[in-house]
Amino acid sequence: MNTTFEKVDQVNGLITMQIEKADYAENVEKELKNYRKKANMSGFRVGQVPMGLLRKRFGTEVKAEAIDKLIREKLYGYIRDEKLSVLGEPLPNDEKTPKVDFEMQDDFTFVFDVALAPEFDAKLTKKDKVDFYTITVDDEMVSKQVESYASRNGQYVKVDSYEPRDMVKGLLAELDEAGQPKEGGLQVEGAVMLPDYMKNDDEKAKFASAKVNDVLVFNPSKAYNDSETELASLLRLKKEEVADKKGDFSFQIEEITRYQTAPVNQDLFDHIFGEGKVKSEEEFRARIKEQLENQFKNDSEFKFMLDLRKHLVKRVGKLEYPETMLKRIMRLNNPDKDEKFVDDNFEKSLEELTWQLIKEQLTEQFEIKLTQEDVLEAAKVVTKMQFAQYGMMEVPEEVLNNYAQEMLKKKEQTEGLVTRAIEQKVAAAAKAAVKLNEKTVTLDEFNAMFKD
Q1: CATH topology of domain 129-145+269-448
Q2: Would 322 disulfide with which of 74, 115, 337, 424, CB 3.0-4.6 Å?
Q3: Please, what is the Cα angle at 326 between 323 and 329, to 5 degrees?
């Protein structure tokens, strides 16, 4: 078997594979013998079908399969051994490949188009200057986080008189034009309302300072600006049934409920950070500050990678790509999409490809190796962030590990975690390699950078 490579231009190449009978004959014979062991043909016992008959019936099919398998093995082996930097899959070149007849031919020539990666230099040195932002954590931010934890861990309590944002529950009764209970009118037991969310200020004001057992008269339709959806929900009717419910209703308050934030005390400290880990409000605020700083470190690293990408993409300039070949690959990879999809997404795909190639070069420069432990650690970081969103800051290592292991069972999540783990290692190595232009900013200033 003879395999050769021809460089058509800087980004396109041809791989030619010349296959002789000796390259595949042994595998064909071996496969036919396997067929014989299982073949069940009329007039012959299983395993006793003559080889000549098997060759006649299955020989061409087995031969084609053996050659196809040989091509796949040797083609990718050749690319690897010759260290060819190929983009995507090699694709058959129908024009240069002679007509194939598996039944009549013994020797074959197959020609493949290959897309070659452009040559460029993205290696980092101290000549490269990249911004790195540190977000300051001030007392106001810490106080807001304390308030958030206290609010998140509060509870509903029953109270005697109404204040804004309270929830009221009671009996709704439809009234007639004289302000009396309407005969056969609608009554809703256990009706629940949040008067503070009413759209009409006059109707909302009727609940000010109301007490349990008070009976108020108000107009639900006016209160919600004739919203059929909200009126139907309150009156427990279908939307088409509320058209004639535009009048006043009485409301006897049976219960007023208020959400009370948790006191900032030992119970809250223990709930957020674990029992006994924090013993004073001062320590609580210090841990929160540390927590926010760690959270913002991730944001800073993310921004650094964005700026590093922008810097390197600009430095390497516009790269030459084998566009015809890449569009062909894109069509094959998206068989359910039309030509417009390729046209609309091609430039964006080249941008992502450029960044991917830059990252690969940096991975080589810094000799980055990824282990299973690195991916697991990335999964644990993501898991920890998810728990933190629900106020759970001190999650046992065993729990983190179990959740992370479950994430790694899902292919799409694993691919994302691999990318994340590599980028974290690239970021760490890049920060040491370049000259950092370090800047301290407020959270508002930092967030403003993402508004463009």
Answers
A1: Trigger factor, domain 2 (1.10.3120)
A2: 115
A3: 155
To which residue do tokens 């810490």 refer? 142
Local structure of 156: helix, strand or coil: strand
Outline where 317-371 has alpha helix (H).
323-333, 339-365
Q: What is the pLDDT of residues 327-366, one digit of tens each?
A: 999 999 999 988 899 999 999 999 999 999 999 999 999 9
Q: Which two tokens stand for residue 247?
A: 């009048």
Pairing between β-strand 155-159 and β-strand 167-174 as defined by DSSP bridges: unpaired
Distance CA 337, CA 430 (A): 38
**Sequence spans of domains, the chain:** 2-116, 129-145+269-448, 155-260
Instruction: Give the H/E segment covering residue 329.
Output: helix 323-333
- 155-260 has the same fold as 129-145+269-448: no
DSSP-assigned beta bridge partners for residue 18? 2, 109
Our measurement of the distance from residue 326's CA atom to the centroid of its chain's CA atoms, rounded to an integer in Å, reads 25
DSSP per-residue string spanning 169-216? EEEEEEB-TTSSBPTT--EEEEEEE-GGG-S-HHHHHTTTT-BTT-EE
* Mean pLDDT in residue range 373-380: 88
* 15, 190, 196 from 164: Cα distances, Å: 76, 20, 6
CB 437 within 8 A of CB 131: yes
What DSSP designation does 161 have? B
Q: Exposed, middle or buried by CB within 10 Å (0-12, 13-18, 19+), for 123? A: middle
Among 1.20.120, 3.10.50, 3.40.50, 3.90.120, what is the CATH number of 155-260? 3.10.50
Calculate what percentage of the chain has a pLDDT beyond 90.
73
d(CA 50, CA 33): 10
Q: 452 pLDDT exceeds 70?
A: no
Q: Which two tokens stand for residue 442?
A: 């407020």
CB-CB contact of 3 with 74 (8 Å): yes
What is the phi/psi pair of residue 103, to 5°?
A: -75, -40
- Give the number of other Cβ atoms within 10 Å of residue 174's Cβ: 20
CA distances from 286 to 54, 292, 396 (A): 80, 10, 21
- Write the class of the CATH domain 2-116: alpha beta
What pLDDT digit, counting tens, does each position of 383-438 carry? 887 877 766 667 778 888 888 888 888 888 888 899 889 999 999 999 999 999 99
